[in-house]
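Researcher: Next entry in the queue.
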Amino acid sequence: MFDSREQAAELLAQQLKKKGYGGKSTIVLAIPRGGVVTGRVVADALGAPLDIVVTRKIPAPHQPELALGAVGPEGVRIVNWETVAHAGVDEEYIDTKSESLEKEITERERLFRGGKPALDINKKVVMVTDDGVATGATVEAAVAYLGTKHPSKIVVAVPVASQDAVMKLTPLVDEMVVLESPEDFGAVGQFYREFPQVTDEKVIELLGTI
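Model: Structure for this entry, 210 residues:
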């Protein structure tokens, strides 16, 4: 159990420092919104630049918490077709929802970056961070997108992740750094004593140094 996103991020940064990460060769990419709180602390501790990677999960029509997959920038899609089949959803729904989410991602990137371009991650160590990972869908979409940008290394660093997500993501990245991976995992918020909603305004404030 962590006190707050900030406290968890400080502990995470300590682990990353021990592993030798940091400096200008590392870029921290946070998944908004909650992940930007984590990412700001980690980036400052490592002396690394901070940017965002915006992803959105594809929700089931009548179970918005159930991820059928996720969408990333530039049309990247990750779809769990087995879950789609169990949810009784057709391909048309996935296409329509994904197209809507792709537009939302573009709008959110523009809002959060204030019109500035994304940081160049070519040949850099890219550290993807969030306040926690439940299904792993949004992080998987982020990793798929980042892989097209030719970083030297992709690291996923989070305070807490489900065991299923760790198993899914570990083969897809160069390293996973996770402080806690409990067996009983309901939602990320259950592992924080304080877990307030993060507003768009807060994200923009935290990204003020991009």
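Model: The beta strands are 26-30, 50-52, 56-60, 63-71, 77-79, 125-129, 153-160, 175-180.
Researcher: Noted, moving on.
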